[in-house]
Specification:
The longest helix is centred in the first third of the chain and has 11 residues. The chain starts with 7 loop residues before the first helix and ends in a 6-residue tail after the last strand. The protein is mostly beta strands. It has 3 helices and 22 strands. The radius of gyration is 24 Å and the shape is globular. The strands form 3 sheets. Strands 11, 12, 13, 14, 15, 16, 17, 20, 21 and 22 form a 10-stranded mixed sheet that branches. It has a 7-stranded mixed β-barrel with strand order 2-3-4-6-7-8-10. 5% of the residues lie in helices and 46% in strands.
Length: 392
């Protein structure tokens, strides 16, 4: 279940921080990649493994004297990790990124994103739909907080199965998009050049620039990827499954992020189906008061009132996931006090004419319709109960 709502670009970096394998970062449901390539031609490479921390013995990429101490280094010895002197590892990306392949530029409701990992390095590109690049042409990376960037580039260095030693975001440089076919199995090609990157780290408010952190750069980098546009809700649903009968009543519980999760399960032995209504009050249009709401957004990353069925579930996994893209939710009691879902308050609502389709949902919550998958229709369903205390 979604843990509240987040900026998509921050979710992108959180996914980077959580796992080295960006292909795995999309979870078991991540679409298979298509043929693509990534190549780079950057600055001086010493041949040493990149540990993600400054190496006192490594020649400065910008040092033309081949070994003299930087004039700005006052301690005469090993560089301090917090030293802002230019003697830090820079432009070390050519040996790793040139090996990346099978890249996809994936569309979500509010962005296009590309993620890649090779060896001990990772790269993630985020293009926002609101004000980011919309087609071919050149755009600049901005020197601004990651959450404010319309086109964001993030690189992880010194990565292993435990994570990366450091993460960097672009604050300068440009991206020239030469090809962008947004149809299924289309192509995306771009040349990235003269990129400056600064170290970032996770904070309570998202990812922020590290004071006196490390720096890095990419002289040039060519990206080639297949495009994977967001699915549309099917025009025709065949109602392979019809209706749902739950047992034991509904459980309506607020999460620590403020969302309300209302769940009920079918009566089963080996496996059960779970009907899950999830309301996210941070999003406009969430059912936080009495009224009628249309279930039209079937992308789990963006739906404010999400209706899902987890089917064939045992103690470990569920065989299938369904999500509604049609239906009407009529709320008579939202169970809120001052806009917040509150324990002890009644939650009563009715669902009519809901249509759900079988989907896969990745770790960024983006949703894709299963080709040839089932559909599930529910003509009527009712919720009536009190909101319980949040889970500990």
């Amino acid at each position: 279940m979604r843990n509240g709502t987040k900026s998509r670009r921050l979710m992108m970096v959180a996914c980077l921080a959580a796992s080295v394998a960006l292909a795995a970062c999309g979870g078991d449901d991540n679409p298979a990649g298509n043929n693509a390539n990534l190549s780079a031609n950057n600055g001086a490479d010493t041949g040493e493994p990149d540990t993600g921390t400054p190496d006192a013995d490594e020649q400065d990429a910008g040092d033309e004297d081949g070994g003299e101490q930087d004039a700005g280094d006052e301690d005469g010895g090993e560089q301090d990790a917090g030293d802002e002197d230019a003697d830090v590892e820079t432009c070390e990306f050519d040996d790793m990124l040139s090996q990346a392949a099978d890249l996809e530029l994936d569309e979500s409701a509010n962005s296009w994103s590309l993620q890649a990992e090779t060896g001990a390095q990772m790269l993630s590109l985020w293009i926002g739909k609101d004000a980011g690049a919309t087609g071919t042409g050149s755009v600049d990376f901005a020197d601004s907080p990651l959450a404010d960037q319309d086109n964001a580039l993030v690189v992880g260095r010194g990565c292993s199965s435990e994570g990366c030693d450091a993460y960097f975001m672009a604050i300068g440089g440009s991206m020239d998009i030469t090809t962008w076919d947004k149809d299924t199995a289309g192509s995306f090609e771009a040349d990235i050049s003269d990129v400056e990157l600064v170290e970032i780290a996770a904070t309570a408010n998202g990812f922020e620039r590290v004071d006196s952190g490390l720096t890095s750069c990419i002289d040039s980098l060519s990206l080639t990827a297949a495009t994977d546009p967001m699915d549309a809700f099917p025009d025709v649903t065949t109602c392979d499954r019809d209706g749902i009968t739950t047992a034991g009543g509904n459980s309506a519980v607020p999460t620590d992020s403020g969302a309300l999760i209302v769940e009920a399960a079918t009566d089963g032995q080996a496996t059960q189906d779970f009907l899950s209504l999830q309301i996210y009050p941070d999003l406009a249009g969430a059912a936080t008061s009495a009224g009628t709401y249309q279930l039209t957004d079937f992308n789990y990353a963006t739906c404010e009132n999400c209706l899902l069925i987890y089917a064939g579930c045992d103690d470990q996994t569920c065989q299938k996931t369904f999500i509604a893209g049609e239906g009407t939710l009529e709320v008579t009691n939202a169970g809120t006090v001052d806009g917040a879902f509150t324990a002890g308050e009644p939650f009563t609502a009715a669902l009519t004419n809901a249509k759900l389709v079988e989907v896969t949902i990745d770790a960024n919550y983006d949703t894709e319709v299963v080709e040839g998958g089932e559909s599930w229709c529910i003509s009527q369903y009712y919720w009536d109960g009190a909101i319980q205390s949040p889970l500990p």
